[in-house]
Design brief:
Oligomer: single chain
CATH superfamily of the largest domain: Ribosomal protein L10, N-terminal RNA-binding domain
Number of domains: 2
Helix content: 55-70%
CATH topology of the largest domain: Alpha-Beta Plaits
Largest sheet: 5 strands, antiparallel
Number of helices: 7
């Protein structure tokens, strides 16, 4: 039984290396159910596992610097897996602020192959951009000079572009 849990966790870590470790101890049944529903809607997999089993899964997954998580794998731990690197951070921030009791509380995270230890990293994790957001930023940066050039050519004289195109087509 334990070996199956470790194998499943190891497979999930290898499949989706962005994970968050949160403390959800003290949440009542209603708040826990609401947290689980919110995670499901945002495509975040929430699992409550024994710390020793998760530590063994980290060891088996081959993550470098996995020892840094030993200090936070104490007490009650919930593991959040997500495709978007900042999804769980935003969920933790909004859920803990709305609930009033500060839970869930970030213990640690492993995002884009970097470990983050402690709740003080929550804001930095919220600001991490997803792959799609980074691509959109790059595309916008690449389009900007072209748009500026076309705008400058059109504003100075509408006929300049037509004249340049006509000259090039004649040669």
């Amino acid at each position: 039984m334990k070996s199956q849990i470790i194998e499943n966790l190891t497979a999930r870590i290898k499949e989706n290396p962005n994970f968050y470790i949160a403390d959800i101890e003290g949440l009542n049944a209603e708040a826990t159910a609401k947290l689980r529903r919110t995670c499901f809607k945002q495509e975040i997999k929430l699992m409550v596992v024994k710390n020793t089993l998760f530590a063994k899964a980290l060891e088996n997954s081959g993550i470098q610097d996995r020892e840094v998580f030993d200090s936070v794998l104490k007490g009650s731990s919930a593991i959040m897996f997500a495709n978007t690197p900042n999804g769980p951070a935003k969920l933790i921030k909004s859920f803990s602020a709305g609930d009033g009791n500060g839970k869930p509380e970030l213990k640690a995270a492993y995002v884009q192959e970097c470990p983050y230890i402690g709740a003080e990293n929550l804001e930095a994790l919220c600001n991490i951009k997803s792959r799609e957001e980074l691509i959109a930023d790059i595309v916008a940066l690449l389009q900007s000079p072209v748009k500026n050039l076309i705008s400058a050519l059109q504003s100075q004289s509408g006929g300049k572009i037509a004249g340049i195109v006509k000259t090039l087509s004649e040669k």
